[in-house]
Amino acid sequence: MIEITDSALKEIREIQRNEKMEDHGLRIYTAGMSCNGLRYGLSLVDVKMKNDAVFDSKGLNIYVEDGLEGEKGGFIIDYIDDEHTKGFTIERIDGCESECSKT
Fold first, then answer.
1. Which structural domain, as residue segments, surrounds residue 72?
2. What angle do CA 34, 87, 78 make, to 5 degrees?
3. How many domains are contained in the chain?
4. Distance CA 42, CA 27 (A)
5. pLDDT digits over 27-62, tens only?
6. 48: domain CATH number?
7. Positive/negative CA dihedral, 49, 45, 89, 102
8. In this predicted structure, what is the pLDDT of residue 8?
9. Using an 8 Å Cβ cutoff, are 30 and 68 in contact?
10. How far apart are the first and last CA of the chain?
């Protein structure tokens, strides 16, 4: 299961419009390791990789790197913009969190 918050969807749609990438989907991939385990990254892509799992959340195509789709219940993608943080967060449903800054 992939859940995307309204604030994340709004920011993604704005990036898609600004970059003329309205037809692109969002890809979740392994971005490395940290002391807490895997770190996840996000990117807008025009085609999915061969073995990516495909999901739809609120009308947005989401491609999940092969092997990650089985991550304990899925992911919640959020966007935070406050005095301490600005960027997307990717939280595994089981409670572990990874952050990636907006680029």
1. 2-101
2. 90
3. 1
4. 6
5. 999 999 888 778 899 999 999 999 999 999 999 999
6. 2.60.300.12
7. positive
8. 98
9. yes
10. 25
